[in-house]
Amino acid sequence: MSQSATLILASTSPYRRQLLQRLGVPFEVCAPEVDETPLPGELPPQRAARLAAAKTRAVAITHPNAIVIGSDQVASLGDGAAARILRKPGGRERCLAQLAELSGRVARFDTAVCLAWPGGGWAAHTDITRVVFRALSAAEIERYVEREPAFDCAGGFKCEGLGVSLMQGIESNDPTALIGLPLIWLSNAIRGSGLLIP
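^ that's the sequence the OP posted. Answer follows.
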């Protein structure tokens, strides 16, 4: 693979863009046209993997000579078929309600990423992060939302910001996965596609 091959992030997420910038390689951003409607009976890790693959393929088809990265994250409460997906709250009231529901509980974040490169190369991975929330009072939740309104983040918090104060612990193999892009796996996969990092 030529070092001049274009690297494309198939995502409009500013968080993923900021994470990928850490690797110090030039890249472009392309919005994938993908239907994100959940499938009946689809479990959170299956949904994350399916959407990451769909985003990667959608951009790779129109950019066959590029290395394409697609990713998706699904946050959930509960296990197996009983798991309930946590969406981006979008506003203050839903954010308050989501954080109240998370109080004293463990949320799971399945962050899937795929990499496609010219010639049919393909790699995929899903990183699992468990966030253990401490028992939160209504006043603590109110103060948090007032200071860091994370309305565009699943669960309604930012672990890279003040949201870390809401937690009792984080169980993960890659701290960047919770933000939206598992860079440890991804940097290895990009090296495997032929680009040098670092």
